[in-house]
Design brief:
By secondary structure, the chain is an alpha/beta fold. It has 11 helices and 9 strands. Strands 3-2-1-4-5-6-9 form a 7-stranded parallel beta sheet, sandwiched between helices. The relative contact order is 0.14.
């Protein structure tokens, strides 16, 4: 295992940071990437505390040139963990289409840029692609229209790619966490007066935020999600879909057996009532 290399995106905080440290503990050579390496201090401190080393490199998933530069500097690659992403809260009438496009660039096209660049090396090593999506890639959620659209797109893309990649010896998996206690939520960037500015959607947004605060009060830790990711890296026959908690399994399960869509609408409609 010590000779195997995994590249992980979005490792400056949260799930990416925890996965980088956990994978290094498990014997992987970890290439820990982030857009701004000046933010590597927390990761490096966590790695030092764990008694492991990580190889920090710059990678902006939205910039194909940055992706190519990072990947071309590797001698080999046995696994890719697509983790980089950004949250977004908003609704269509009150934001521009360019805002939605920006969310897609990070959460969908960023995954594609990195995966495309990595596939030749993963074919050579018989490696694997593991992509962190979300239960928001299974069930559309109020005020998460752009975010869920991007995660739905990732899920569909990876589900379609998986059997094709398998013919070339590369396994493809998605990991779907529910609520996770990390900086991801604070990075959504919702203004303090967002409800006041929401106009006709103010009551719905207020109800949604109240429900969400409760959900994240009982969230998984990044380390718990990271344990699932590292297990996927090591297992001989990785599953395509891994839900990281009982709450995530119960939530996604509503959609997977909801043939006419009524169960999902009843559930998410209650969030904004």
């Amino acid at each position: 295992m010590s000779t195997k290399t995994v590249l992980i995106t979005g490792t400056s905080s949260g799930i990416g940071l925890a996965t980088a440290v956990a994978a290094a503990r498990s014997g992987w050579h970890v290439v820990a990437t982030m857009r701004d390496t000046d933010r590597a201090g927390t990761l490096l401190a966590a790695a030092e505390e764990a008694g492991v080393a990580v190889d920090v490199r710059a990678l902006d998933v939205t910039d194909p040139a940055s992706v190519e530069a990072c990947l071309s500097g590797l001698d080999r690659l046995d696994a890719l963990v697509n983790n980089a992403g950004a949250g977004h809260v908003g609704t269509l009438e009150q934001e521009g289409v360019d805002d939605v496009r920006a969310v897609m660039e990070v959460n969908f096209f960023g995954v594609l840029h990195v995966t495309k660049a990595a596939l030749p090396m993963l074919r050579a090593s018989g490696g694997r692609v593991v992509t962190v999506t979300s239960v928001g890639g299974v069930i559309g959620q109020p005020f998460n229209e752009a975010y869920c659209a991007a995660k739905f797109a990732v899920e569909g893309f990876m589900e379609s790619l998986a059997p094709v990649a398998a013919t070339a010896g590369v396994s493809v998996s998605v990991v779907e966490p529910g609520a996770v206690a990390s900086e991801f939520v604070s990075n959504v960037g919702l203004a303090d007066n967002a409800v006041e500015l929401a106009g006709p959607y103010a009551p719905a947004l207020s109800a949604y935020l109240e429900r969400t605060r409760g959900a994240f009060a009982n969230a998984q830790t990044s380390e718990e999600v990271a344990a699932h990711l590292v297990e996927l890296l090591a297992t001989e026959r990785p599953a395509f879909r891994v839900l990281t908690s009982e709450a995530a399994r119960a939530f996604a399960g509503v959609k997977l057996k909801d043939l006419d869509g009524s169960a999902v609408q009843a559930l998410t409609g209650s969030w904004v009532a």
